[in-house]
Design goal:
Aspartate Aminotransferase, domain 1; six-stranded mixed sheet; four-stranded antiparallel sheet; elongated; binds ligand LQZAQKY5; binds molybdate ion; metal-binding; EC 2.10.1.1
């Protein structure tokens, strides 16, 4: 007997008729990784060679004492303690519970708390990054304890850490998925070369597709020469038409014809940031005009698949307000092939 006499080691050849204490995993590189036997399975004579094939010369018989939890029950408890809106739990599998989204949306995870929880010895909580875009049925979090049996005290500490975090953060959900709203988007395409027809607009279709990907719609596209007054007029018209988001493409960098940042300021918007420390997408402007988000989109959004626009857009589509702090953190890890 080991581990406070709760785990009895039995030779596999002598284990016929006994009950497995946990899921047993087989891994064949490139072919299979998964559960070969499930916890609770009663071992049959035919199972013996299969068990030996996966390297199990001994198995555990479990005699759990008060004050201890089986890995499956610990994983369920941990998942229940962190789960919030629009998610569901899977059954435990090889000691792990997965929290999955039930809708497409924006996954919210509290990094600071996840770090605190993982400081508890024998606890493992693996998550997607905060603000990841997820599909329905996609896993967001996996919970597991490292040993097969764990002291209940560990889970009590886990729970207390969460309670304390909630007290300090207005009972904020730990893990949740925010649905995407159906926004009406007004698009202003600037650039004399497009306005006069010298070149075809290639920015509009790309932005329209990105908006549609989150279930929103560009309700109108207007074209403007490199003239601040015209851009301001289009902004005001869209504001009157009560669009939910105004996007302005081009004219965002350092040339004399780059009129977009000036026009957004001239329209009276509050500027959250001109510039982001992410490449590509460093010349993006984030602003709000009486609560309506306005974004100035630099040329790279038309060319690069992943820019600061692709980081901020899903959050805006999920109804979040972008603050300066959301922009400043984009620099660390923010160099993407640019
Ligand atoms: N010396 C510097 N050069 C650049 C800087 C800088 O800080 N200093 N920033 C770079 C960054 S970052 C970007 S992004 C680009 C472009 O920024 P803009 O938003 O000002 O882009 P434009 O000058 O308006 O156009 C650039 C390019 O894209 C074509 N374009 C624009 N709109 C359309 C459209 N609707 N359809 C088709 N093509 C379009 C335009 O004709 C130009 O070829 O600046 C870097 N340079
Ligand atoms: O706004 Mo610009 O690329 O950073 O490419």
């Amino acid at each position: 007997m080991t581990s406070d006499n709760m785990l009895q080691e039995i030779r596999t050849e002598d284990a016929v008729g006994m009950v497995l204490a946990h899921d047993l995993t087989q891994i064949i590189p490139g072919e299979f990784k998964g559960r070969l036997f499930k916890k609770g399975h009663v071992i049959q004579k035919d199972d013996i060679p299969k068990l030996l094939d996966i390297g199990k010369e001994h198995i555990y018989i479990l005699n759990l004492k008060a004050g201890y939890l089986h890995e499956n029950d610990a994983a369920i408890q941990m998942a229940n303690l962190v789960q919030g809106e629009n998610v569901e739990l899977t059954e435990p599998h090889e000691g792990k519970v997965t929290i999955k989204s039930i809708i497409p949306g924006l996954a919210k995870v509290e990094p600071e708390l996840i770090h605190q929880l993982n400081k508890i010895d024998e606890i493992a909580v693996a998550t997607l990054k905060n603000n990841s875009v997820v599909e329905a049925d996609q896993g967001i979090v996996g919970t597991r304890v490292i040993p097969l049996i764990v002291k209940k005290e560990k889970l009590e500490l886990f729970e207390k850490t969460i309670e304390q975090f909630k007290q300090n953060h207005n009972s904020r959900s730990i893990i949740q998925v925010k649905p995407f709203l159906k926004l009406k988007v007004g698009l202003i395409t600037t650039g004399g070369e497009v306005y006069t027809g010298r070149i075809k607009d290639k920015f509009g279709p790309i932005v329209k597709q990105k908006i549609a990907d989150f279930g929103s719609e560009v309700v109108e596209q207007r074209f403007s020469p490199d003239d601040a007054g015209t851009i301001v007029q289009h902004i005001r018209d869209f504001k009157e038409e009560k669009v939910d988001l105004i996007l302005i493409t081009g004219g965002m960098s350092v040339d004399p014809d780059d009129r977009t940042p000036g026009a957004i300021k001239q329209a009276g918007a509050d500027i959250v940031s001109y510039g982001t420390p992410m490449l590509p997408g460093s010349m993006l402007m984030m602003a709000y005009l009486d609560g309506t988000p306005i974004m100035g989109l630099p040329g790279c959004v038309m060319h690069d698949p992943y820019t600061s626009f692709d980081v901020l857009l899903p959050r805006i589509c999920a109804g979040e307000k972008i603050e300066k702090e959301d922009i400043t953190v984009l620099g660390y890890g923010g160099l993407h092939n640019c």
